[in-house]
Amino acid sequence: MKELLYYQDVMLREFDATIVSKGIDEAGHHYVVLSNTAFYPTGGGQPHDTGTLNTIEVIDVEKIDDEIRHYIQGDLSALDGVIHGKLNWPRRFDHMQQHAGQHILTASFVELFDAQTVSFHLGSEQVTIDIAVDALTEQQLAAAEARANDIILENRPIQTAWITEEELVNYNLRKEVAVTGDIRLVMIPDFDYNGCGGTHPTSTGQVSAIKILGTEKMKGNVRVSFVCGQRVLIELAMRKKVLADVARQLSVPEIEAATTLAKVLSAQKNTEKALVATKEELLTYEAKALVANSEGVVTAAFNQRTMQELQKIARIIVTDQADIMTLLVSENEGKLQFVAAKGKNVTKSMKDVAGKALPLINGKGGGSDQMVQGGGECTMSKEELLVALQNA
Ligand SMILES: [Zn+2]
Fold this sequence. Notes:
Blueprint: H1 5-8, E1 14-24, E2 30-34, E3 51-53, E4 56-64, E5 67-72, E6 82-87, H2 89-113, E7 117-122, E8 127-131, H3 138-153, E9 159-163, E10 183-188, E11 192-195, E12 210-218, E13 221-228, H4 230-250, H5 257-292, E14 297-303, H6 307-320, E15 325-332, E16 335-342, H7 350-357, E17 364-367, E18 371-377, H8 382-391
Parallel strand pairs: 14-15
Antiparallel strand pairs: 1-2, 1-6, 2-5, 3-4, 3-6, 4-5, 7-8, 8-13, 9-10, 10-11, 12-13, 15-16, 16-18, 17-18
Helix pairs in contact: 2-3, 5-6, 7-8
Bound molecules: zinc ion.
């Protein structure tokens, strides 16, 4: 373990090695095992490296039964004897920045609030840690982030050491070590001592910066999402673009975008309320006009009126006019709809009216003796349906 190139020199980007064995796993994936390697295999929360062996792509690296398998894209026969390995360094260095940043942030939460990290996930865009607390305040998050960035700015060394179980007592470890035999410690002197098999830069300054992006409750813990290093700039660029777009659409400086948006949304709510009130008023006028132009029965045929509008108009009329029956029809996208309603002095049942009219349009409907609504096919014109309703 200690001899592995990624432990010997964590900054090693290229190396030579010989092929020890080749194989094909159960899933049919081709792999090679090397005499030594700088390719880090998936483990301890850190994703595997990628890169090339000679010109062949390494797409996955896994440690299985004490051998490190380099899964390759393509044919095994292209590789033989001595090979030249080359890491996808931006990917590896990004993982080192995120992983070291995680140690620093986790240790900051422990130092400031005695809050332990119970799990860690290094995702392709963000990193998360689950902290064993019920809640974290904005102030606590800000304090932990500030402490972590101080440790980065101080550019402390990140050291590693291999020790035995017996030697563990000499170190003030952040949490108990689960492995036995040779134990690898990753240490930031006077700050954090931790058992870890991952790769880290050689000093905290190389983490560059750390930014917490959000929190969510997760099974009794609080999950903290954050980014380190180059990812801080990527996040900043993305957020800058979104904010600039919002500010441009609102025609205000970015700093005023949120308050302006709140005003716009509030104004929109008021407009919607006013529009609803105006529509109601308009329906009242329309109802009055229909009554003024008719005797005994109000009839009207429309295009593209909603059932709700028909119902509202009918209700307004029959509430005011105890002796009037109202029959309204609308043709909407190839369908006929109608509403029939009566004032309280009219004896005829609207259910009977619907019962006779619905079969004529292969329709369905329902309601009470006072008011019914129904809809069906355009087997006749809307005017013809009005006549049928009147005669029903
Ligand atoms: Zn670690």
